[in-house]
Amino acid sequence: MRVHNPSFVGVEDDALVCLAQDGDNDAFAELIERHLPTCKRLAMSILRDKQNAEDEVQNACWKAFEHINQFNKDAKFSTWLSRIVVNQCLMRLRKERRARFLYLDDGVQGEEIATLDLPDESPTPEAALAQSEIGQILEQEIRRIPPLLRDVFVLRDVRELPMPDVAKQLGISVAAAKSRLLRARLELRGRLSKHTGRLGLATLTA
Description:
This protein is an all-alpha fold. It has 2 domains: 6-102, Orthogonal Bundle (Rna Polymerase Sigma Factor, Chain: A), CATH 1.10.1740.10; 133-204, Winged helix-like DNA-binding domain superfamily/Winged helix DNA-binding domain (Arc Repressor Mutant, subunit A, Orthogonal Bundle), CATH 1.10.10.10. The chain has helices spanning 13-21, 25-47, 50-66, 77-101, 125-144, 147-158, 163-170, 174-192, 201-204. The two termini are 30 Å apart. The model is unreliable at 102-122 and 198-206 (pLDDT under 50).
């Protein structure tokens, strides 16, 4: 279990939000740590599956980090974060529901049977070049992440292993693996920010 940063003892959420919006990743991590138990309970109440709930909480935390500057303090940070968690869980439910009813081989119902044609999603030459350049930048910055954080990032976000498998390979608990993953994503986000003037961070992290 992660120990709260002693530097932030007694610091209110509003102050931590201001620090986070100024680029203080430790302040953001402290905010997440404070509200993580509530987020997990909320996600579990919606999804009824522990692993799915934990995955969507992680996704919600990452989205909160990406959009922290859009938080305008009209509501509490905890309320804002909870809304993101709820949205993530509802999106997952909708995707699962669509997956159960989408049969590509059955065609489209109507007066005539028709095949379901999928659009050609092949990238244009320009897009392929941009993706190649972005890939090189990502590989370069991932290699610069401290090994303790890089290993969990590669196993989870690159190799897409389930979190229990990641934790097992690293010999740590699932909670510790998730904590390291969040820190790794924050570290990579900071490293990629220096490239925003040329390619745009939204493109790099899409």
